[in-house]
Write a structure and sequence with these properties.
By secondary structure, this protein is mostly beta strands. It has one domain. It contains one helix and twelve strands, in the order E-E-E-E-E-E-E-E-E-E-E-H-E. Strands 1-2-5-8-11 form a five-stranded antiparallel beta sheet. Strand 9 and strand 10 form a beta hairpin. The N terminus is likely disordered.
Length: 169
C-alpha cells in the first residue's frame, strides 16, 4: 500500500511517498485451549518513506549554513522502519490450527520493536557559495542522518493490529 504527499514547509518544497507492509512469523499459545492466544515471534516492518526536497532558503547542518545553490538538484531521503526482523509479542482471538473447517475470523493486538534507518543523498554544486566538495556534503548529510535516527529512537515500539478472515479445509 502506498500513500503520498507534496507541499511546501518553511524553506522546503517536498514530495513524499509512504509504503506500508510487513512480514511476520509467530508462534501462538492457546492458553485455555479456546480461541484466546498469546503470540510471540519475529516481525519485519517493510514500511518506508521516501521523497525529495528542494531548498528554498538556507539550512544549517552541523553548525554550518548551506544555501540552495550548494546543491545540484534535490535532496533525496529514504526512511525505513524495518531493516531486519525484530521481536513481537501480542494477544489475539481466533480458531487454532486444529479447529473445525470453514471460515473464521481472528483479531491480534501486539507490539514489535522498530529497526529504523535514515538515508539522505544529494549532489553538490561545486560552484556554490560555500565551495563544498561532494565528500564534505556527504559528511554533513551523514551527521543529519544520525540526528534523524536519534529522534526516531524515541519511537522504538510499533503497534500492531491485525484482523483476519481465515478458511480451513
Amino acid at each position: 500500500m502506498s500513500v503520498g504527499d507534496a507541499g511546501n514547509e518553511a524553506d522546503l518544497n517536498y514530495d513524499i511517498d509512504f509504503d506500508y507492509g510487513a512480514n511476520a512469523l509467530f508462534i501462538d499459545w492457546h492458553v485455555l485451549g479456546g480461541g484466546f492466544r498469546i503470540s510471540a515471534g519475529m516481525f519485519k516492518n517493510n514500511g518506508a518513506a521516501g521523497g525529495s526536497a528542494a531548498l528554498q532558503g538556507a539550512i544549517v547542518i552541523d553548525g554550518q549554513s548551506l544555501a540552495p545553490t550548494d546543491f545540484n538538484g534535490d535532496i533525496s531521503t529514504e526512511v525505513s522502519l524495518g531493516e531486519s526482523y525484530q521481536p513481537y509479542i501480542g494477544v489475539g482471538w481466533g480458531r487454532g490450527a486444529g479447529g473445525d473447517g470453514g471460515f473464521s475470523f481472528s483479531l491480534d493486538v501486539g507490539v514489535a520493536l522498530l529497526d529504523t534507518s535514515v538515508d539522505f543523498d544529494a549532489a553538490v554544486n561545486a560552484a556554490g557559495p560555500n565551495g563544498l566538495s561532494q565528500a564534505e556534503l556527504d559528511s554533513r548529510l551523514r551527521s543529519l542522518e544520525k540526528d534523524a535516527e536519534a529522534e526516531l529512537d524515541n519511537y522504538e515500539l510499533w503497534p500492531v493490529l491485525a484482523l483476519g478472515v481465515n478458511y480451513a479445509f
